[in-house]
Design goal:
Layout: H1 3-16, H2 20-30, H3 38-51, H4 58-69, H5 77-84
Helix pairs in contact: 3-4
Length: 86
């Protein structure tokens, strides 16, 4: 793991309390996922929310899912992070 990756995983763990191993496990499980399928995306969003211990309202979950399904994902981590806040 290079310094950039280590720094990124350290930041993820600090902000979300999710270990790098868990991130790899999720990433591996979705590498062939169909992100145009609402059910797949919703399951992933719920899984990530639970892992981070960050409950999402139905409204917030719907907004995140629709953003992903409609391929309107934010281009940077700060914007994506803001979707999960509130």
């Amino acid at each position: 793991m290079n310094n950039f990756q280590k720094g990124m995983f350290d930041k993820i763990q600090k902000n979300t309390n999710i270990r790098p191993e868990e991130v790899y496990k999720v990433a591996d499980s979705v590498k062939n996922a169909d992100f145009s399928d609402e059910k797949t995306v919703r399951n992933l969003v719920r899984q990530l929310s639970q892992m981070a211990n960050k409950p999402l309202s139905k409204e917030r979950e719907d907004k995140i899912v629709q953003s992903i399904v409609k391929n309107k994902m934010p281009g940077d981590m700060n914007t994506l992070n803001n979707l999960f806040k509130k």
